[in-house]
Here is the input.
Amino acid sequence: MNQESDLPDVLIDSERIQQAVSGILSNAIKFTPKRVQNEDGSPKENKVSVTVSKSRFGIDIMMSDNGPGIPKDALNRIFKMGERAIADEVEGHGIGLAVHKAIILAHGGKISVESRGGPAPHS
Amino acid sequence: MARKILFNRPYTISYFMGRQKQPKSSVNLEEVGDKTRLQDRGNPLHAEASLLIPEIKASLAPKDVSRKESVFPQEARNTWDNLSCGLIILSPGPDHQIEFWNRAVESWGLTRSQVLGKKYDCIVPKIFEEGRIGLINEAIKTGKTVCLKGVEHNSLRRGVRYQDLVISRFTDSKGGHHGMIEVDDTTESEFRRQMDGFAARILSHEIKNPVSVIGHAVEILSGDIRTLEKDFGIPPERMSGIFGCLGIAERNAGRINEIINSMLDTLKNERITLSPKRTDIRPLIQNTVDFIRPDAEQKKH
Here is the structure.
């Protein structure tokens, strides 16, 4: 975990933000397999990281994992109610991320996801 | 439900309800941060629409909002014909309605192919990266026609549903600039309502109830287990460990319950209610990470 030392205080609903951050982190953990591999097939340690930094309008919280990533065709719908990126492999109902997005938007924030084929950061 | 929304100067908002003449509540305007958000059954498209043209935002006020039911397309045609400048958002609905609008657009100097055809075969991947608002703004700014197609909803295995969005900019014969967005939110809004009901049922019956039962069971167990201390002479330090574990279970059952309640509340109200306070984010994130860490550690093994 990395946090800038001079982060400004922010006007937030702590419980809601905690709910969103813990939910997204849990998601990252849930979807990261026990064993992940490098591109050459060698094993590497699975890892979920959190970075908090100052941004122009407040703060950025970036969460990333080194799991298999999210299919490109699923990136646009994972924040929608009832939608799931990998429907059959991990249990879930496609609710959590939709609620987390609603929380972030209610704060006037923005939530997005990237997947670069290898690591799958969420911010 | 097909919905046609029309923005035109001097910034009146009219609703064309298509063939369904059901009564509709008035539009609510609310300030969210630095944005004016139009809330109409929580349809996000409205919120996006309010952001499209800054001057609309500046001029929007409850008194400017009018509601109108109409048999489409005749009355819409009248409004269209009288339109001097503005932004139009409409839900195309059946093909003949799309045809109508395409003909209308054509008569305003926009070629038919710029709207018709692209609706079904042009996908702009960027829309997913920058979000709709960004793309819509870009479309208005650059005048290019873009199309979003194929937002697939199949998680309920109820068949594939789509939301189509066509954006174009054109100039009328009087030199007025227009932006047009065609949105078929019929399936989207209907699906959203279905999903909200589905999610609420899952949350209430499949998660909230079992979690409540677990919480109560732990509470009862905590009471019963106190007798063990007396009856079996279990040492206090051992009892302390047992109560510690039970406390963790009870607290977390309560926490899940709270989260579920807030989610149900969100689904019910279609928006999040916040109690914001000025907060130092660092300990909050640290606590959250610490809370989650055991799950991550467990996953490693």
